[in-house]
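Hi Y.,

Following your request, here is the sequence exactly as I used it, all 204 residues.
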Amino acid sequence: MWAIMCAYFTYVYCLWIFLSWLPSYLVEYRHFTLLKVGLLASLPLFAGVLGDTVGGVATDWLLKKTGNTRLARRSVAIVGLLGCCIFIVPAALTENAYTAVYCLTASMFFLECTIGPSWAVPMDAGGKYSGTVSGMMNMAGNIGGALSPLVFGFLVQYGNWQAPFIVAAALLVMGAGVWAFWLDPDRSVLEAFEASPVSAEQGA
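Below is the corresponding structure, written out as C-alpha cells. Let me know if you'd prefer a different format.
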C-alpha cells in the first residue's frame, strides 16, 4: 500500500508543477507575452492527453501479450517517469525559451503515460478493496499536489527558477525506483497487511 501511495505522490507532485506554475514560469522567467503563453502553456496539456491514452493502451497491450502484470504495469510507469525526467532537466537548464517549452511538452507526455498503470494497480492489488486502495492512493497524490506549488514558490523565492524542476527530476527518479523495486501489482495489499508485524500483533 505504501509503495502505491509513494509512486502516485511523485506523479501528482510533478503534475501540479504544470497545473499551477507553468504560466507564471513562461511569463516571468521565459518572458513570453500573455498572448503567446495562452498557446504555449496548453501544449504540455495536449501532450498529456496523448500520454494518458498511450500509457493506458500500452499497459493493457503488454498485459495481453505477456500475461505478466508486473511487466505490463512497471515498464510503462518506469518509462513514463524516467522519460519525464529526461526532458524536464533540459527544460530547466536551456537558455532557449522555445526549447524549454518543447521539452516541457515532451516531459508532460511521458508523465501522463504513467496514469494508466497507476490506476490499474489498485484493481490488480486491491481486489475487493480496490476502492479503498484507490482512495488511499489518490489521497497521497493530493498531498503531493498540495505541496508542489508551495515548494515550487519557496524554491523560486529563495533559490532560482531551475531548482523546482531539479527537485521534480529527483522525485521522478525516486518514483521510478519505487515502481522497479517496491511496488508489486501482483501482491495483494490484504495479504501484505496480514503478513505485516502490525497485523500479527492485532491477531495475537
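The mean pLDDT is 94.

Thanks again,
Q.
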